[in-house]
């Protein structure tokens, strides 16, 4: 069932390709033989009812879980078995469904986490404040401020993350992910808990991220957002892929309608 | 408050510098103990306060440093202060070896393992491992430290050696805190999954901070051996680890000033209450309990802004 989408994605090379990904927790198969590709420069949405295994797929991609079977190929390299920070260093970044910020630290320090792996200064260089270390810290700070401004949090750099509003916390998480300079950004329910206005701003932000040449893969329940920004959708139900294609194709797919509204004989 | 702080610190430093002029030998000796505990608590703070790793076996690293110095000095006649880097190195390496298999454990589990490590080291010392540690009697007649041809003997002289080392430690640790390394420790404490997911090798930093904290405790051990001229297992009991743990939590984990204040309270208070004799630990225990109920975040909790001056410049934008 190696169904690489041969319909419309062929013009671009896939940046990320999942092949037959399977993951079981005890007796429960959370992800079952899932394959799809994310083309370079695209915005791809991963949707499905609650518990369909979407977040598990994300956790498999970023190495938080190890898959039982299947391959994850990113920019022609196999990611299976790599530890999460190694995967991030390869150019993948993510946000979390239930916001995971460093709450006691300032927004700026949060974003600096994303700059961390590109810096070198160790214990001795830091204790003795070598000029190269100072230079590097300054460069990282500049980078972090840029990302804060990019997501519209430029004036909140000195505020502790826990004191930001919910929507701002989501944006801060995106800024931290962007600071790792990713090629692929994975967003797990970026509009979760946002009001209409914040969601609208988020849609704009996602567009700006794409303009920077960053590919995006996102999970989202807000169908208006999904239909508006995604070029391609992948639909999961009970851990299996049931549909893949453009938003219009997916919207008309009988299996998708059944998954979301329930089969007639079930009701 | 902001202008008040540098003044308070200056006053504190000045009174430490001039303390030997006013205090008697006993009082200076208490002050020296406080200095050693401050040093140890600062090193534990890296592990417990900054990185959030529960370590209640810190006395083990202290012991290894003290014994390394004692053995090198009494067997090979190496001047005691020269053994300082080696004590640090050996305590640090020991920490890396023990921490490697257990460092992935979470909170309370790590706590229990580190208690075990502390006890194993103490019992090993009592049992005279490799015939080096002198068993329950320990090692005595360690020679007095010499600095630039001057032999340090009196508590007043140790006062400057110990508190000088404390000052150097604070100076270096503040810089460490305001760096990539220091931030990585805070990320670890705040959210390990998010830290790893931001490209930070969490396993590396856990090990590195155990190694560094232990190395510093090992060097404190050298100072202890030099001050006492005798080391024995009873100086490195579980109670020592508990006291250090208490100082860090009481001071406000991650806060250097808080830890200095807490070291004065935890080590100094029982001395003040000496006249209550048997009841002094009772009073002390009560103070601790009230403290934790009234102010669980510690005396002077760390502020969230702890950035280097280069970063602070940006605040004028």
Could you explain how this protein is built, in words?
- The complex is a heterodimer of chains A (267) and B (317).
- With 267 residues, chain A is an alpha/beta fold.
- Chain A is 37% helix and 23% strand.
- Chain A has two domains: 1-91 and 182-267, Rossmann fold, CATH 3.40.50; 102-181, no CATH class.
- Chain A contains ten helices and ten strands.
- In chain A, α3 packs parallel to α6 and α5 packs across α6 (166-178).
- The longest helix of chain A has 20 residues, at 131-150.
- The model of chain A is unreliable at 1-11 (pLDDT under 50).
- Chain B has 317 residues and is mainly alpha-helical.
- Chain A binds chain B through residues 62, 64, 83-85, 88-89, 93-94, 96, 100-106, 108-109, 112-114, 116-117, 119, 121-123, 125-129, 133-134, 136-138, 140-141, 145, 154, 157-158, 160, 176-177, 179-180, and chain B through 172-173, 175-176, 178-184, 186-187, 190-191, 193-203, 208, 212, 304-305, 307-308, 310-311, 314-315, 317.
């Amino acid at each position: 069932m190696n169904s690489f989408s041969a319909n419309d994605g062929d013009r671009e090379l896939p940046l990320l390709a999942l092949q037959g990904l399977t993951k079981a927790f005890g007796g429960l198969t959370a992800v079952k033989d899932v394959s799809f590709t994310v083309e370079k420069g695209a915005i791809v949405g991963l949707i499905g009812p609650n518990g369909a295994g979407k977040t598990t797929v994300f956790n498999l991609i970023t190495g938080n879980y190890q898959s039982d079977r299947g391959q994850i190929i990113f920019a022609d390299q196999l990611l299976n078995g790599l530890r999460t920070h190694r995967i991030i260093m390869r150019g993948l970044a993510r946000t979390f469904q239930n916001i995971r910020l460093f709450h006691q630290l300032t927004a700026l320090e949060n974003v600096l986490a994303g700059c961390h792996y590109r810096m070198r200064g160790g214990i001795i260089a830091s204790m003795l404040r070598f000029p190269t270390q100072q230079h590097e810290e300054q460069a990282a700070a500049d980078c972090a401020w840029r990302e804060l401004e990019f997501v519209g949090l430029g004036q909140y750099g000195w505020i502790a993350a826990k004191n930001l509003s919910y929507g701002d916390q989501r944006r801060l998480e995106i800024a931290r992910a962007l600071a790792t300079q990713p090629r692929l950004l994975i967003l797990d329910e970026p509009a979760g808990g946002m009001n209409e206005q914040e969601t609208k701003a988020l849609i704009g932000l996602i567009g700006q991220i794409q303009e920077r040449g960053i590919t995006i893969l996102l999970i989202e329940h807000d169908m208006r957002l999904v239909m508006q920004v995604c070029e391609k959708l992948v639909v999961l139900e009970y851990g299996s892929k049931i549909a893949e294609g453009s938003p219009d194709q997916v919207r008309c797919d009988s299996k998708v309608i059944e998954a979301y509204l329930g089969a007639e004989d079930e009701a | 408050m902001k202008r008040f702080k540098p003044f308070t610190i200056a006053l504190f430093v000045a009174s430490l510098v001039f303390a030997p002029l006013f205090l008697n030998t006993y009082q200076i000796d208490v002050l020296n103990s406080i200095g050693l505990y401050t040093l140890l608590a600062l090193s534990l703070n890296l592990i417990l306060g900054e990185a959030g790793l529960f370590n209640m076996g810190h006395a083990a690293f202290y012991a290894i440093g003290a014994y390394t110095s004692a053995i090198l000095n009494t067997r090979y006649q190496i001047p005691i202060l020269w053994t300082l880097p080696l004590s640090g190195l050996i305590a640090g390496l020991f920490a890396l070896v023990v921490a490697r298999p257990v460092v992935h454990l979470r909170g309370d589990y790590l706590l229990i393992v580190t208690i075990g490590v502390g006890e194993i080291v103490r019992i090993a010392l009592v049992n005279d491992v490799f015939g080096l540690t002198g068993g329950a009697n320990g090692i005595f007649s360690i020679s007095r430290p010499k600095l630039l041809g001057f032999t340090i003997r009196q508590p007043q002289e140790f006062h400057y050696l110990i508190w000088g080392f404390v000052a150097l430690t604070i100076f270096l640790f503040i810089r460490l805190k305001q760096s990539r390394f220091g931030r990585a420790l805070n990320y670890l404490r705040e959210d390990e999954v998010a830290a790893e997911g931001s490209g930070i090798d969490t396993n590396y930093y856990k090990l590195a901070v155990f190694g560094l904290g232990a190395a510093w405790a090992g060097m404190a051990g050298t100072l202890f051996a030099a001050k006492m001229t005798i080391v024995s297992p009873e100086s490195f009991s579980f109670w020592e680890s508990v006291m250090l743990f208490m100082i860090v939590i009481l001071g406000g984990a991650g806060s250097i000033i808080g830890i200095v204040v807490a070291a004065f309270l935890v080590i100094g208070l029982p001395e003040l209450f000496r006249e209550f004799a048997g009841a002094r630990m009772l009073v002390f225990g009560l103070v601790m309990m009230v403290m934790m109920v009234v102010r669980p975040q510690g005396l002077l909790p760390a502020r969230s802004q702890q950035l280097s001056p280069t970063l602070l410049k940006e605040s004028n934008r």
